[in-house]
Amino acid sequence: MKIPSRTGVTAGVTTGSPPDERSRGRRRRAVVAGLVASGLVGTSLIMPGIAAAAVPAFPDNVVVFPDRDFVTLEGYQDHVGQTATVEVWRGTQIVGSAQGVVEAGDVAFEINHPGGVCWGAGTNLKVTPDIKPGDRVSIRFGTAANAAADDSTTVADAFVNAKSSLDEATRTLTVTGHFNPTLDPTRVEQRIVNPDLTGTDVARRDVRAVPGGLVAAPKGGYSSDLVITGDTFKATYVFNTIETARIAATGGGERFMSWQEEDAEANRQGLTIAEYGELGGPGMGGCPAGPTDVAAPAGTAQVIRSGASAQVSWTPQTAVPDASPVSGYSVLAIDTSVTPAAQAGVRTDAAGKQATINGLVEGKNYTFEVRSLAADGSSSKPFTIGTAGTGGTQTPGAEAGITLAPGAGATDLTAVATGLVTATPNSTGGQIWYTDGPVDVVTGDALAETAKLYTAPVAVTAPVRLSFAYFNPDGNVAQASGYYKPGTSQPAPVAPTGLASSAIGSDRVTLTWAAVTGATGYQVEATPALAVPIAATTAATQVVTGLAPNTAYTFTVKAKNAEGTLGPASNSVPVTTTATTDRVTIGTARWKAGDFRVSGTGSVNGNTVQIYRANPDGTIGTQTIGTPTTITANAFDIRLRNGAAPATNPGRIFLKSSGGGVTGPFTVTNG
Known about the structure:
Residues 296-393, 495-580 form the Fibronectin type-III domain. It holds the Pfam family fn3. The chain contains 1 helix and 49 strands. By secondary structure, the chain is mainly β.
């Protein structure tokens, strides 16, 4: 694991750790930041306004550190080498996202932590989100956002809200905080982490409190209890010595852990670790700023010049979630022919998307500038101006022309039936605007308030009057308008060719095909049909998920045109998904001269497990140790004695099952 040493955080991964102080005999796996006891949970917490999704199943996990805006993804070894998308959802809005490639080992990858990836990596949302209680952090490998099959952790609304308090007379340390009563009070734990505790009678780097009354720690040094009352909690630690109590009280590291599900082996899933006093924002150099430090959003603008006036229209970018909201826009016409430059302009409110600047000098060139203004007083970079010469003077020149296909009807009774209306200008470099109603798009050379910039053929889904205006680079205008009604005007696309499958898994397959000229999208179809319909795609490839293991399917794909008309099906491709691999874990691995013992669990009884040595680089080797051992009652115990045992400690090992399950590398301890 990549987490470096820091206050309240353990460096590296610990394996074969002793049982939790209230949970003797529970199996543990790698610990995130020295705190995360890996585990599953039995019921999902659904916060108001958060869409339902699956809590990860062991050994996969999504672990969230909201105070540091840090996420670690554990497991997902069946996706090694694949790119995953992680998204932070607040209700139905994505407030943070990143992509990372799954690495071999216990940690798939991390976000906003040294050695990991930044928020915004591989996505367009370049901001480090301020992760809050109630947010949902999901991981997906498909293309459908917020799919019900996504793994996710809902950030728990429970955290320490004050520094610990020590009563020296009774050697009692208390930690208090907030607790949302909708959380499961049996799936919580409060910890204080201080590496200096290792050298005390506590004999470990943290102390822990769970509900159930004041109970002595198994290793000694203190007793503890965690009491939840309404929307608050109180953790109490009574230490055997005042010296140890002072160390615990002065080292910081107060945190509260809660999880959504837990299985019979005490694996905790959907884990939130709230760390008191930790700072949010970028966790390493080069990562994007948090929302409070992001500048106002820019965008694009267009200018239409007419004599002494100019009409400026703009489309701002979407503001970063949680950033200071846009309070208005500044629109300027700047005369750079004089020093200092002269300028004229207006300001609008946040709803403004168009402004007219009057009082300009005819024949003089101006540079036009649009900026968004944020409520915190900041402003954006200038918007990109979309007219030639950065909005300079348009003078009389070539005549403008525009043609509509198909041609329009003169009245609603003679409306032309079509699915799309295409507007074609007689020259390049200008702009086409249109309205879809009774108002003309332009009067003289002034655009209507409802005018829209034409960027693609206009779809006709109901009877409508369309009005178009083309402004050529010289500022001259051509208009065309008329009536249309829904119909079909384009032929259906031809069938795609070359449909092929690859990367077949137990629940997914990748399909590719040759792109069809003129197609605007594709629809993949499966036989038998899937429970969740396959989403349409615009690419000539698609990863189909939600398949059943060890099942035969037949796939085809159809192309569609801009009107949504589907063409004939492609060639069919048969695909049989692979069987689901079993899961195996190593609980203990110990070596001493003449005695080597490895024990653990397996999900499929009757399968066999084999020990392999790890290579120096941490990958699985080819050299085996011992012979295959059968999994019985979902457990195995391999013991090699005398000459059968390795002559020296093997160091790190892997375990492979005959059912395809793999776990490791696992460090063998002495003794």
